[in-house]
What does this fold into?
Amino acid sequence: MTQSFRLENVGLINRNKKLSFKFNGKVYYGYEGDTLASALIANGVHLVGRSFKYHRPRGFFGAGVDEPYAIVQLYRNGETEPNIKATEQELFEGLEATSVNCWPSVNFDIGAINNFLKIFLPAGFYYKTFMWPKSFWFKVYEPFIRKAAGLGVASTKHDKERYEHKYEYCDLLITGSGPSGLASAYAAAKNGARVILAEDKSRFGGTLLTSEVNIGNQSGKEWAESLISELKEMPNVTVKNRSQVFGYYDHNMLVMSERISDHLPKTKKFHPKQRLWYIRAKEVLISSGSIERPIVFGNNDTPGVMLSSAAKEYLKVYGVLVGKNPLIFTNNDSGYETAIEFQKNGVNPIILDTRKDPKSEIVDEAKNLGINIKFSYVVVAAQGYKKVKSADIAKISEDKEQLGAIENIKCDCICVSGFWTPTIHLASQSGNKTKFKEDIDAFVPGTSKQNETTLGAANGTYTLEETLKNSFEAGYKLSKEITKNDNKISFPNVIEKKSTVHDKFWCVPLPKGKNYKRFLDFQNDVAVSDIEIALKEGYRSIEHVKRYTTLGMATDQGKTSNLNGLQLVSKIENKVVPAVGHTTFRPPYTPVSIGAIVGREVGKHSKPTRKSPMHSWHEKNNAVFVDAGVWLRPRYYKQGNESLFEGSKREAKNVRTNVGVCDVTTLGKIDIKGPDAAELLNRVYTNAWLKLPVGKARYGVMLREDGIVMDDGTTTRISENHYHMTTTTAQAANVLSHLEYYLQLVWPELNVNVVSTTEQWAGAAIAGPKSRELLQKLFPKSDVSNEGLPFMGYMEGDLFGVKARIFRISFSGELAYEVNVESDNGYFMWEKIMEVGQEFKIQPYGTEALSTLRIEMGHVAGSELDGRTIPYDNSLEGLLSKKKDFIGKRSLNRKAFTAEDRQKVVGVVPLDKKTSIPEGSHLVKDSNAPLPNPKLGYISASCWSVEYDNPFSLAIVKDGKNMIGKKLFVMSPLKNKVIPVEIVSSHYVDPKGERVRS
Amino acid sequence: MLYIKCPHCGWRSQNEFSYGGDATVKRPKLGKEVTDQEWDDFVYNRKSLRGKHWELWQHLSGCRQWIKVERDTATHEIFKTLKASEEIS
It folds into this structure.
């Protein structure tokens, strides 16, 4: 394949580096600096896809971010990415891409039959047709529509690429490096401001790269290059290309996606693919330029019909001709600039100008070059199916209603210019109420809402001199306010060709007897007739018209279609455009990859991982870990081929018969100090705390103000004004915030300080009938007898030279102790316990055995204290002080909370003593009752009781106190189980609590 | 993302803070007899205001102080921030 549409010696591409690439399986060549689009056009490829609804052939319409057609599936380094705009994808060696939206191939697409059925596919077609019968929607209609209408295909593989997030602050953020962006950035940077200049494309300079202007005795391109290289050297300036600022959020926070590696065959080692920047800017200068507007005519979606500015860009930047026999269709002077470029490069264009007799420097130049210009002429329809072959043209009357005789002229492309639409997305996203500017028939930003200023073409200023003047001034003024510097640079001399007014003409009428499709929205196949139908059917609001017809939706978000859509609605409704208004501009301005949004927080990194100081010991001893909030905890220590069930049973059994040790480092710990510490505890916990002696621990329950149990745990009085509070692993952070709230806001008079010490202490629970003997050997100098260290006692001890805290508390219901040492000594402590415990047949136990032990003891935990239960429900009503007030006490008077048949925790045993009960199952009286079967309660936690060797569960059941001894059914529709059970006391083992006191 | 001026630390992004609800609600004094209505107003009943609203935020990933913030619930404009000890004027 030769690049037969490539010009010699024109363009900014690197001709020394030839690149090969594949499109739809065929090999082509391009150059470094090409986009996929420019390289394909250079090879004469104009058919790149099929349209969304009618599957009509699709070519290229633009040369950048506004592209509605050329959406491809990209393959790069073993990965695939959908919906990539060929006009934005830079070429690299080995690039592979395929068309989307066509089957079996782009040249022969079965879906194109929709094109002949288009009379049956009007606006709202899906809404109307596929509504009935309802049952068909999911099974028949939706899968079919999805297959037929989908764009690209997302990869189902794990994305191996890395994406990063970056937070940045600056004085001025400037979006776009065209004339206004460069001028304002330069002025502000020279005045000492911290500037970030963001350019979406790979090349800086915007329209300066393609326009014939002179700034300060340099060409526009040279001026841009010299400014950029100076800016890049300045320490207060960050210059970023391939970076799209796509969203303007609250308080001047903008988000930018930087495509670091997308233009390379493979991401470099240690580099991210993309980086998302969160930028907090003091001032934002929006210099995003404008996008050329199409003129609507028959078959205006035929490949080869494109924006005239795009044709110029392909020629001047890439040295590529979009056609060798071009027709320029324009209502303003911009089309002439494109025509002049063609003419200068030996290609003779024809200009059709809708205006009668425009007079300007540019028009004169075209005339002098001998270009064939037809005034008061329009393109009625493009002819050709997969590529423009000719155009039906006609003279148009002065009132633009009557067409003259149709003539057919040969051409291979139609370059359209319908004037310019400012890119106001960012300004609008900031909350700026836009206003309509009559002289350019377009919306521009109104009064600034946040600290944003819109400059240049984005603000509807279309002359270079005015743009540069305003931008220099804005950059200088805004930076002066921030930096207080006063370094104003001089304004360069500007030479540009003067243009004259455009013609407010945007839609060619249909010739008599012809029914051409005239498209407004090229990506979604929305034609003039669709809007007409929507309005006929009563849709008035532009937001409703948008949703009914899909005008302005999809990946290009109507960058080329919105204004013409508004023009049409306002014409039919006989309203002025500003009265119709525009749809809301929402971020993102361009599609952003999910990977960039997620950043590094993927998989294991989606939350932090916390490990106890003993973690490596657990790993070495075959622990199987489980996530407990952000912590990793051993679930059980696997021996041989043991299952979780077998292993946890063995570990729990060993605690009941010998002694076990469990890593309880993850429990929340809060250090509480101050003369009012006891008073704080007394208000936070439901039971009495003022008389707790030093060296004693107490179990406490805390409520929320609405009476629901928030958390439980033990708190120990270390010394007179010093307490050590423990919380559950899950609630640690919330409890700290809760205490801080009351201390800072509600009772600031309390002299207490609280601080989290969860990570400062390593904890080991030693539980089992032999735990005292073991403890005595660990602390030979301490008296750990029942008298020396009674139940709920506390002492400090010396663990082979390491300072330790010893608490006699029990979660397992056995005789048990908890030993805490400073985290650095945690591993030492653990090894010592295991070493000394050998003779008592010690075994470590994990969370599964821990659960088993607490469930069969009837100790409530997270699955009962689930944010829906009050103390009574958990049989904790004995801990409610009658003598004092505490947080949430008043709520316990609520009627529902004091109801006679209030729910309560109970024990559940299957009648067959064999069938395990799934957690979450429901309890019902009659398993055969008609649905909805009244539910009496639910299973909150299940285990295999090692004490009795049968299944045992805890449940929260309505009227629980009167249910003991009753026979009910457990139903689990999910597991398809019905189990006859008996309700028993929740304290299944050692109901009198003798073991912990033994 | 909001930009909140912590009275202790200065300007910080919203992701360092957690929201804490209406700052004008006063907890009845401990031990004080209150009617059901008064208690419900304290625990549950909140106005869903459009416009200026005094609310609590905690500078969770910073100084851990609870602060009072006057914010417009419709526009997100923040007018004033106060320390926990300062009275809303």
Observations:
- The CA atoms of residues 1 and 23 of chain B lie 21 Å apart.
- The first strand of chain B starts at residue 3 and ends at 6.
